[in-house]
Amino acid sequence: MASPKPAHADDLAKQQRSISVAEFFEKNKHLLGFDSPTRGIVTTVKEAIDNALDACEEAGVLPDIYLGIFQMEGDIFKVVVEDNGPGIVPENIPYVFGKLLYGSRFHQIRQSRGQQGIGISAAVLYAQLTSGRPTLVISRCGSDRPAFRFLVQIKTETNEPEILKREETTWDRVHGTRIEIEFKSSLTARKRLIEYLRYTSVVNPHARIRVEIDGEAILFDRASDEPIIPPQAILPHPHGVELGELKRIAAGSKEPLEPFLINSFSRVGQKTAHEIIQLAGLKETTKANKLDADGLARLQSAMQQVKVPPPPANQCLSPIGEVLIRQGLEKEFQFDFCSARTRPASVYHGHPFIVEAALGYGGKLDAEGNARIMRFANRVPLMYQQGACAITGCISAVNWRTYNISQSGLPTGPVLILVHVASTNVPFTSESKDAIASIPEIEREITLALQELGRDLKTFLSRRDKSRLSEERARAICAIIPEIATKVAETIEKPVPDITPIEGQIMRRLVTKKWTDNGTVNVSIQNYTSHALDLTLYLITPDDVSTADPPAVFVEEMGTDKSAVWQMRLAGGENWQLRYTGTGNGMIDIRGVDEKKKVVVDLDRS
Ligand SMILES: Nc1ncnc2c1ncn2[C@@H]1O[C@H](COP(=O)(O)OP(=O)(O)OP(=O)(O)O)[C@@H](O)[C@H]1O
Questions:
Q1: Does the model's pTM come out above 0.80?
Q2: Is residue 587 within 8 Å of 464, Cβ to Cβ?
Q3: Burial class (CB in 10 A: 0-12, 13-18, 19+), 318
């Protein structure tokens, strides 16, 4: 066989042409999370729901989202997502859905679920590739505006939208957006889809998501009626600016260097701007757009060296918060123990970020196998590539045995670990946004949060184990007391005494340390020798306190804890005993607070 003729540069030149981004991703759809029909449905739902949540958040409304998944003919599925967000103006609808890399978030420095402007258009591309069908969009921007209905797809050769239909329509929503996308898929990923929605609901406790999937209705209701305060965009931080970026920003400014630095970067005031210019050896009067390559390089280097306060994280980030994380988790899971941490804001490469984490233990969690891990970035669940994610790496690197949890790489047993990384720029390992890259600053924060939670769990477990031990001991003693009483009575030739009160005493001592199933707990307040206090006693347990005798106890919500509260006057040296009954397991914590004197006393429960 003749060997192929070597190509000449002229031959190659005939084949060389630019490639549109749509063509590129059509060929490389796995890079956007569309590797298979099964995965395609999860990614499509995720992109649409993330956009709906972002839009509602930006408009300051509580999200009311509808998701429908219907099997059409054969292996064609239709995904419908409807939101009550601000809507999209009709002029922009074709671009939002019919052009890759078009969006409102890419150039803004603030936390948002979407970042690149590629998510929903990639779903449209995937749909037309696998089913050949365009995407239907209905959107309305207010009661005084008509709703518009579009049929749109992407011209892959140019990455430009193709409008197949545009018409005014009637729609009962005053504002919002509805999309209908049809593509080849299957419902093999049903479990993962539900898991995605469940996890989304945990970290978005303000959202209500109504789901209709293959004829089954599921409601993920909101646990909080507080809309999220939308994070505000900030200017780039001087420590995170690369030379190319600085060149672009400077080219667009006719200002002299001092106002240029102050107006273009966050946390730069007059003093800092002056220091940067001095260190770079530049003149204050030089206009930013007149800097040559050397001047720009010196300016960029000086910007990295001068001390600048960290970016204003409170403004541009929106962490979930410890109380809401616990509320969200407890809404979906029931634990014996749950603790959450929101770490202080930190910075990597000039990008602010906050790590939040929670640890749930026991309850209905699986006692066998690895811990359940829930990973989130900017309130979006990360559903794939767990092994490639820095969060998983940090969880495995913590020595969980120190906290009395078994471990084989990952912790094992009835444990749930949630980690949320919120940032203005989440460093994903790829465009499919499945895993967070190993950035040392982020890993450090995750590890610290996990260690804090580990310590909380250890305290809980050791208290619980102590209670169990003393219960076992007391039961063992009670079991042999009748025998001892008989033997002693025989030896001293006296009648066998009634030992019921002694048994009672031992068991009471036992139950003072534990909140038992349908048990009675006695609490003594002892050795208080100070002045009299008008105490409000707070009994805090993870479970309900149902009745009390005496005095009357009522149940009140304190955060996510249930607490029984009652009033009493305690004089110096007095010894009180309180009895209450209830159900459930868990530790009890009793504190007395004199509201007027602002005194808090820990009460002796032994
Ligand atoms: N339901 C919606 N309501 C209002 N605006 C929307 C909605 N969906 C999308 N948009 C607008 O369209 C833009 C493009 O959305 P797209 O999903 O392609 O990208 P993104 O969400 O910005 O980023 P990413 O590619 O990371 O998902 C968004 O930035 C937003 O401005």
A1: no
A2: yes
A3: buried
Instruction: Indicate whether residue 205 lines ligand 1 (CB < 6 A).
Output: no
CATH topology of domain 499-602: Immunoglobulin-like (2.60.40)
For the structural domain made of 238-305, what CATH number should be given?
1.10.8.50
Q: Whose CA is nearest to atom 10 of ligand 1?
A: 51
Beta carbons within 10 angstroms of residue 113's beta carbon: 24
Distance 108 CA to ligand 1 centre (A): 13
Ligand 1 lined by 119 (C-beta under 6 Å): yes
Q: Is this prediction's ipTM beyond 0.90?
A: yes
Shortest-distance atom of ligand 1 to CA 433: 26
> Mean pLDDT, consecutive 10-residue segments, the chain of 606 residues?
82 91 91 91 96 95 96 94 97 97 90 92 95 97 96 96 97 96 92 94 92 93 85 92 94 96 96 96 95 96 94 91 85 84 91 95 88 96 96 97 93 96 95 94 96 92 74 75 86 83 61 35 36 47 36 29 44 42 41 53 43
Count other C-beta atoms under 10 Å from residue 182's C-beta.
21
Q: Where in the sequence of the chain do the CATH 1.10.8.50 domains occur?
A: 238-305
Residue 119 Cα to ligand 1 midpoint, Å, equals: 7
Which part of the chain has CATH 3.30.565.10?
21-220
At the topology level of CATH, where does 21-220 sit?
A: Heat Shock Protein 90 (3.30.565)
CATH topology of domain 333-462: Ribosomal Protein S5; domain 2 (3.30.230)
Instruction: Please state, in angstroms and rounded to a whole number, the distance separating the CA atoms of residues 399 and 387.
Output: 18
